[in-house]
Amino acid sequence: MENLNDCCAKIKPCGEAIFISSRIRLARNLSGEIFQTAISDKGRTEIFYRCQSAILKMRKFANGAYCNLEETPPQTSRILLEKNLISSELEQGKGSRGVFISSDAAASVMVNEEDHLRIQVIEGGLCLKALWKKINSIDDSIEKYLPYAFSSRYGYLTACPTNTGTGMRASVMMHLLGLAMSDDMEKITRGLNQLGIVARGSNGEGSDPVGAFYQISNQQTLGFSEQDIIERITNICVKLAEFEQNARQKMLEENPEALFDKIARAWAILESAIMISTSEATECLSALRLASDMGFMPAKSKILIDETLLKIRPAHLSEGKELTPKMRDIKRAAVLKSAIKNLKKPVFGSRKKRA
Ligand SMILES: Nc1ncnc2c1ncn2[C@@H]1O[C@H](COP(=O)(O)OP(=O)(O)OP(=O)(O)O)[C@@H](O)[C@H]1O
After folding, report:
1. Each residue of 86-133: pLDDT tens digit?
2. Is residue 222 part of a domain?
């Protein structure tokens, strides 16, 4: 089995433009077993070991890394959370629970989260169709060893009824700063809800869309096939990206001063702050991301910007040390100052015709 840190190091931001990353997760439970919400500690531990033995029969997980969250220091589990390898529900949960990470770090299986199993795959860009093939094959392999709770009428049975059916959430993380700056996101979010789609913040359920990073995913899992859901989310995300491009273009034509001011201020803050919070830093980096997309900074700046967005998050910043919030804010400002030195300052005179 691989070392957890080496495995995590394989996760690298890829500097995509509007479509940052795609994710599919499947919620699965073992047939005849009590759901997490009502199970005893002993029952939870038994489920954990049953799942562990099945998952480790697959080479990609046996050669990957494994983390038992009951025995893991919070600094390590926070790193896994910040890398999106686990959810906050698993991180904050109690009792026997853990995560198995594949050798390429692109797939992970959480055990004893809200459901007995939460299988997930993540990749950069808009690629839900390819991810579906991948996760479907992982799901089939696990099912060879673990019989799933399944009803021919309802589909996969889950701890929360909102996941029953396919048990699938397909999501795309998008950078929608143009729409957010034009105050259109509230209207769009309402429209999406009417279509059974939800726009969450970048940290998932209940999180704020700091920096206009939105995660677009399906709300409905019952009555549709997996392919239908994937096609629907893909089409909607393509449409949203079109709206975003239009919002950027409109801003440039009708109110360039506001756009340039936002970017210039972001640069100035990152260059000179003495202490800075994660959310303020994320907002500023988000503005530079937009500058890079719109041709005011080199396109390749996005790789460094995305790496920095991860580096400034609390657990990554602390590097295993106990830092107070103030110490973190001071260190974050220093990290940003040095990152900025490797970027070209935005120039507003020259730009590509269209982002
Ligand atoms: N497209 C994506 N790219 C990268 N990370 C993602 C993406 N979608 C979700 N995530 C991450 O996955 C984690 C869980 O997200 P979320 O809470 O929305 O879903 P869930 O736990 O699968 O669903 P549910 O709310 O139904 O239990 C979060 O940390 C979130 O940042």
Report:
1. 999 999 998 999 999 999 999 999 999 999 999 999 999 999 999 999
2. yes
Question: Which residues constitute the domain of residue 233?
Answer: 4-245
* Number of structural domains the chain divides into: 2
Shared-domain flag, residues 46 and 21: yes
The answer on 183 and 105 residing in a single domain is: yes
pTM, entire model = 0.92
Instruction: Give the 3-state secondary structure of 97-162.
Output: CEEEECCCCCEEEEECCCCCEEEEEEEECCCHHHHHHHHHHHHHHHHHHCCECEECCCEECCCCHH
Ligand 1 center to 81 CA (angstroms): 10
Per-residue tokens: 221? 């899992």
What beta strand segments (E) does the chain contain?
Answer: 19-28, 65-68, 98-101, 107-111, 117-124, 150-151, 155-156, 168-175, 197-201, 213-218
Q: Is 70 exceeded by the pLDDT of residue 191?
A: yes
- Is ipTM > 0.85 here? yes
- Burial bucket for residue 45 (CB in 10 Å: 0-12, 13-18, 19+): middle
Lining residues, ligand 1, CB within 6 Å: 21-23, 25, 84, 87, 114, 122, 163, 169, 171-173, 200, 202-205, 215
Residue whose Cα lies nearest atom 19 of ligand 1: it is: 204
The response to whether 50 counts as a known ligand-binding position is no
